[in-house]
Write a structure and sequence with these properties.
It contains eight helices and 13 strands. By secondary structure, the protein is α+β, with helices and mostly antiparallel strands. Helix 3 runs antiparallel to helix 4. The longest helix is centred in the N-terminal third of the chain and has 41 residues. The radius of gyration is 33 Å and the shape is extended.
Length: about 400
């Protein structure tokens, strides 16, 4: 960013000078009435000034007190006007600086690609830690993750778009190109940490790719769930697994403990927000106690796997590339298969709407599925741009259909 875009100095003398002048021009009653409190103070200042002038004219003794009151009232009004004028002056100067930055700020391309570690999920994320005063240890998820990125070959910034300038989808060879040894799939483990001596005491093996909240108890246990669907109790001192149950869904929230009728209960809210699209989350509250005999009902059967059945890809390479750019700008945040599809966002390669230009337009432009959460892009995309996205998705669907089984969904 250019030097001109640095923060405006608090005591910029051009702003101060203007604010001093404005302190007096703002005494106009029409201006003061916008601030009722200060308007009342100004009225009081005028009345005390009139009384002071009268007393001086008639030669009345003991006007010192009146003089002090009048002085402080006018000082209060002028200082309030000065502070307001300073704020307005600095706000205008900052706005001018930002407007200038829009045209002068330059982004430099640092290279064709790079790696961020930890990745977007973070090393610990939001999942609550727990502390056991008996062991003196803190228990938390440690997530080893990374994100490899590559500069988009063709990038055009568009208003109201995700202007990240990155390739979508990311080439599967990106880690090899970067000669990276970072984990390509996130790995989450439960770690027991000694905060006094700053050392790790124990850790589990890989439990999944998402962290989970923890609960440690006075009984020497640590509870944590996994996104693979297990709820587990560990020995707080050495990490040995002592008990587990299959929750039929991912478990990432922190458990809680409470006492009722002299018995201890452990409550866990289960349900995994990143379940594949179309798969039941089985969200519910599970409560456990020693000797509890209740059992979960059988899990519902999984729906059949979707089948790729796109129409033939007949669009030109130029149209498909244009759709690629539009997809990256408007669609990838929710519908890119490698980064999104968070339970509620479908993989568009399987969409029946690919078979009909009219149906695709109705969804994207006319809001046919708006009640289901798919907003209309009318006013942000043209019919030709929408159809280029359809052509791009059709091309990707056909590529996935003809790819070896391990490469497709």
């Amino acid at each position: 960013m250019t030097k001109e875009t640095s923060r405006v100095a608090i005591w910029n003398w051009s702003i101060v000078t203007r604010a001093i002048v404005d302190s007096f021009t703002k005494l106009n009653p029409r201006t003061m009435m916008k601030n009722p409190v200060m308007f009342v103070v100004e009225v009081g200042s005028v009345l005390t000034t009139i009384a002071l002038v009268r007393d001086i004219a008639f030669g009345r003794p003991g006007i010192g007190f009146e003089l002090q009151i009048t002085f402080w009232l006018w000082l209060t009004v002028l200082f309030a006007n000065f502070a307001e004028a300073m704020a307005e002056g600095r706000g205008k100067a900052q706005a001018d600086t930002l407007r200038k930055a829009r045209t002068e700020t330059v982004a430099n391309r640092l290279g064709p690609g790079g790696q961020v570690q930890p990745g977007g999920q973070g090393a610990h994320s939001w999942h609550p830690f727990s502390y056991n005063p008996d062991t003196g240890l803190v228990y938390f998820s440690a997530i080893e993750t990374s994100t490899a990125v590559k500069t988009a070959t063709n990038f055009v910034a568009r208003p109201m778009s995700a202007n990240v300038g990155l390739e979508f989808p990311m080439p599967p060879t990106i880690y090899d190109e970067l000669k990276s040894k970072a984990p390509r799939v996130a790995e989450s483990r439960l770690v027991a940490w000694d905060p006094v001596h700053q050392r790790e005491v124990w850790r589990t093996g890989v439990l999944g790719n998402i962290g989970g909240g923890t609960l440690s108890t006075a009984g020497g246990l640590v509870f944590q769930g996994t996104n693979k669907g297990r709820f587990v109790a560990y020995d707080a001192r050495n990490g040995k697994e002592l008990w587990s149950i299959e929750a039929q869904t991912g478990v990432v929230a922190a458990p809680s403990s409470f006492e009722l009728g002299g018995e201890q209960y452990i409550a866990e809210e289960v349900g995994y927000g990143l379940a594949p699209y179309g798969i039941s989350n089985q969200s519910r509250l599970l409560v456990f106690k020693l000797g509890g005999a209740a059992k979960l009902p059988p899990a519902p059967p999984q729906p059949p796997k979707p089948v790729l059945n796109p129409p033939p890809s007949t669009a030109s390479a130029e149209t498909i590339e244009a759709g690629h750019q539009q997809f990256a700008s408007h669609c990838a945040m929710c519908h890119e298969t490698a980064y999104a599809n968070r339970a509620v966002f479908p993989d568009l390669r399987y969409s029946p709407a690919l078979n009909s230009a009219e149906a695709f337009n109705a969804i994207v432009l006319e809001g046919a599925l708006q009640t289901a959460g798919m907003a209309s892009f009318k006013g942000r995309m043209t019919v030709d741009e929408v159809q280029s996205v359809r052509a791009y998705v059709i091309e990707r669907a056909n590529q996935a259909k003809s790819a070896p089984p391990t490469a497709g969904r």
